[in-house]
Design a protein that fits this description.
The chain has 770 residues and is an alpha/beta fold. The protein folds into three domains: 170 residues, Rossmann fold; 182 residues, Rossmann fold; 349 residues, Glycosyltransferase (Alpha/alpha barrel). Helix content is 49%, strand content 12%. The strands form seven sheets. The protein has a seven-stranded parallel beta sheet with strand order 3-2-1-4-5-6-7, with helices on both faces. The chain is elongated and about 105 Å long. The relative contact order is 0.07.
Amino acid sequence: MPESRSLSAHRTAGAPGIALLGNHLPRRCGIATFTTHLAQAIADARPGADCFVLAMNDAGHHHAYPSRVRFEIAENDLASYRRAADFLNVGSADVLSVQHEYGIFGGPAGGHVLALLRDLRMPIVTTLHTILAEPGAAQRTVLDEMARLSERLVVMSQQGADLLRQVHRVPDAKIDIIPHGIPAVPLAGAGSKDRLGVQGQTVLFTFGLLSSDKGIEYVIDALPAICAVHPETVYIVLGATHPHVVEREGETYRLMLEHRAQRLGVADHVIFHDRFVSQEELVDFLSAADIYITPYLQPAQITSGTLAYAVGAGKAVVSTPYLYAREMLADGRGVLVPWRDAASIAREVIDLIGDESRRHALSLRAAEYGRSMLWPAVADRYLESFTRAGAEHAARRRTSFQAQTLAKRPVRLPDIALGHVRLMTDDTGMLQHAMFSVPRYAEGYCLDDNARALMLMARIEDAGTDEGPAVRAMASRYLAFVSDAFNGRTGRFRNFLNYSRAWTEEHGSEDCHGRGLQALGTVVGRARDPGRRSLAGSLFHAALPAVSGFRSPRAWAFTLLGIDEYLHAFHGDRSVQAVGQALAERLMDLFGRVSRPDWPWCEDGLTYCNAQLPAALIVSGAWLERPEMIATGSRSLEWLASVQRSADGYFAPVGSNGFYSRGTAPAIFDQQPVEAGSMVSACLDATRIDGDPRWASYARRAFNWFLGENHLHASLYDPLTGGCRDGLHADRVNENQGAESTLAFLLALSDMHASERVDAAVPALIGAGL
């Protein structure tokens, strides 16, 4: 079956489009049941709406979905999630309602769904069916990102809202508490008992997909004592074993329960219905029940559709005290018993069977509470949440990037995570490209990326955050690559090495040579290992003479930035100073000849790594003590910041599909991470040299582009992998996570962390009189 069906046949002009993402019947699970019933309830409440579903398919399974399911997503196929985003955007859905459960989406902690959500243009309302008090690192990251991407978050209990605030720092204003929907169930069950063949008997009832955390064995253990007092009692267990449990364990749990009942002599009092029933059948079972029991074993469970159904049906309920049960059964709406305590279950059940007035009082209080949980009322609450989300989404798009001082909106920097760098690195060096987050061997390696990686390792060492042997090993590997790239016969660096470990050229571009010198200078100036510093110094001196014959301004700039780093360690090296002075004069002369009042630049166009050109003048002017050089670089960088700023106030680098030639309009797309990274680095260099606070604000604006402050409001940084996506198109993010993009982000992040450390140290130094 194709992934999607035609939308046009279902959508009426002007009709609101309401899309739901989750599992859907006939897939057998609680989320499928919930999504199916919620979609129907919304369609009933808003007949003019086009309410449709995107259904998750578990690996290796296909289902005969009804026409309401318009798109199927393969759980572990990341491309399928992106196609779903395209389907929604093209179909002009007005809102997406996500049913979130960690186990239904692919990737670490279900993180694949983020690829879909980041690409959407409509508001997102996410219903959280599980919120963990102690999530793992990946689980926390996924839910934090979902919370950021969602306009509203729906939970089904106050406990869920409390966990969102405490664990994920979600503000109250973003949370809607909407109960689990339930069908209308008749209180009287005589007719239902006849149909089920249990007329004249007291029915204890548990339903739901079976798994070993349900605790049903403790009810069976309680049955001998119950049946000794009330021999007419029967315990009905309704539900198939969860499909994932069947795949892993077969029917071990069900067979254990059956053997337990036989061993205890109560097999005649236990009825197993091993099937997944329709809502109509379930209503019949609920109507027939006298006492509903949830003996679940997971204390942190924040929702239970089965308990919601039982309370809404006005059943007397006995339950273990998991979070949702404590809230649902408060104020005399049910009875809580200790964990794994068959004697307590038996005592409470015996008392309820024998005390009809108590049982009836519990039933009435539960039924009264359940009125707000009927599906029509729940659908109205969801529609209200969708309306709020739409208004907030529109307001956010209007105002999210209008001028605000960054001091008023501090954003916590991510930690430096090297997982994707390690993945992209083998025993030769760092590979160039990736398909999504998977390295692509065919394109091999290049000096540019290994030089960037070498700079990153040196900065990590310099920051005192050395990760130990891992960072030292990678630093040595990247330096070895740079060393092998140097062709002593020509005095030039080669750039491209294929996967067969053969260089494909005698020498690379002038720009890649400058990049190699920048990396080597950084190692000399910042690395702690004397061996690496010594080798880097030797290579730096061997490669520096070639630059004198170069014509590329970027090669000059990269080299000047490397010289600035080198001179941090060897300020008195006159030979290096002489080369640096000559290159800086050459770059300054180019600015003087080409720039005009409306074009303070050294070329007739902006292309790539633009900010490095004024940065080279600024840092060189500092050590050369040339104020006019610093002023020229500063004026140029200020202009570049204004050019690379959208009307809404966010960073918008010149697009690589056309760049920006003088006298024409700048290309807007595709926006590249290396431009944002270069701007961050240049502005922080300017901050270091002249202390003007505007540079720090420009750097933060450029850095926030990585985190979603861009025209798509989409994060290029992937916190699950530690990688960075390869670019920003007009309508989507390029999901590939290549070396250049990832290193551009990590270098910018290391610069931002270094800047924060300096800012934090200044007050202490002032207080100490230094």
